[in-house]
Structure formats: C-alpha cells, structure tokens
C-alpha cells in the first residue's frame, strides 16, 4: 500500500516495514528492463572504416580527418550527415525486445541472408565487429550482434538510416571550396567573360576597374558552395560533347592568392526544362543542377557592379552634408 513516497512491505505476516517506493519499482522490473539494450557495442570515435550492405548494394566508408570518403562502389567524397547517421543509430538506438535467447534457426528471423549487414573496423588494428538486420515486417525488424547469441527486435526508425542509396551517401555539394581563400573569380557564360579580383582592402573589383558590390560577390560564393547535384549522370564520362561540356557553355574558375585554382566548374547544355549538365573536372562525374541555379552563378553584370555616382547624386549628398553642418 503506498504511503506518500513510501510503501509497506513484509517478509512474513508479523513484521511490516516502510520502504521507499523506488525500491518496489525496482523489484517490479522485468528481465528486459534490466538487460543491455544496445544493438552492438563499439566506440564511434574509434571507427576508422566500415561497410554497409543493403538492398541497394554494398558501401565502404573510410574516415578522412573529420570527414568520410566513399571508396566502394565508387571513390568520392561522402555525405557526412547520412554516413554519420548510420553510426549514430548504432550508438544511440536501443532495441525494443529480445525475440530469442539462443536461436537455432536464423532463417526464421530473416538473418541467414540479412537485408542489412554492417561491419565496423576500429582502432589502429581495425578490429572488426558486426551486426545484421532483417527486412522490416510491418514496423519490426530482427537483428543480431556477432558477439552475442540473442536475437533482438528494433523498429522501423532504427533501420531507416541503413536504407539509403548511393546518391544519399555521396557528397552532393561538388562545387564547394574555402570561401576565405577566394582571391579571383572568372565567370564565362555564353562567350561573355567577367573577372573579379579582391584588392588589399578586401573589396571586389571588375578587371575593368569598376567596383563590385561586395555583398553580391559574397552571395555568388555562397551560391557556388550551395550548388547541390540533383543527379549523378555519369561517373566516368568518355564523351563530354554529348553533355555540352566540350566546349562548355559556361565556366567558373576561382583562384586563391597564390594564383592556384581552387574550383573549376563547367556548365553544359540543358538536359530538359528543369535541369542542366555540369562537371567539376577534378571530380570527373557529370551531374545535373536545377535550371534556377544558372542565374545564381551567372548573375548579370549590372547586378554586380556599383552604379557610378552622377553629378546630381553628388550634389544631393553635398547639400545633405551642408544641412547637417548648419544644424
């Protein structure tokens, strides 16, 4: 019987004592409440590489500093967010139930040929650990850690990060660069060339000497960094002409203060009404971007250049200054 935050307990009919209700709550827990609910034990910061096999293929990821590289089925920069989501789920996700303690038939649980298989390689010696998951059955999937005998259950949210395709695991922002290193920018579009260079005061000037709007050039740099590939059309193109990339319709080149190119972006023909072909030669792949991105990376000259002050505007500013002085 509860008494405030306490309860009565007895070991026989003659002796009754009062104890904290938390003790009774602990005694009421089931076996599952007490057991370890992690799907697999590992330390995320020690994972040097890992593989994921799912219905879309087999993927191999390798840590490169703070970033991830995809090495199979292709070699390219990885999407850190989607790759880390796999490890985060394994580290922080929890099982919902134990289906069998010592199963004799893995096929019964869809684990003899699992839909999802993850192998982690950790530490300097790249020690291997692994975990498998079945296909979803309703909102439930079965799983098994290589190091322990029991089969557990997880929900659909647990396996969601494992279901991604190649597109999801690769870096889509192929035109990104360190904006602080940008010293000179060349924009060539439909045979019209503009060259912008930053002076010692960090102001941007057109090669003709006209002053550019700094915030517009800053927006241009942001737009380049935020260009998102909508589709990877050809990872190993042999004929760039069919994409309108040889010669290209447009080109962006960004240089640092050592006159080294830190970005080259080629713009090809339209694929359809919504997308156009493009390539960063260093990364080889031909991709598509949204047509709306064209005007973001090739703005009109008049939108980028400061308008020269007319005599009338100078007189207006002068009169405003005189009025302030009289006051």
Automatic annotation (TrEMBL):
Region (Disordered): 305-327
InterPro entries from the UniProt entry: DUF4340
Coiled-coil regions, chain positions: none
Domain DUF4340: 2-114, 211-307
Pfam family for this entry, one: DUF4340
Protein name, as recorded: DUF4340 domain-containing protein
Lineage summary: Bacteria, Pseudomonadati, Calditrichota, Calditrichia, Calditrichales
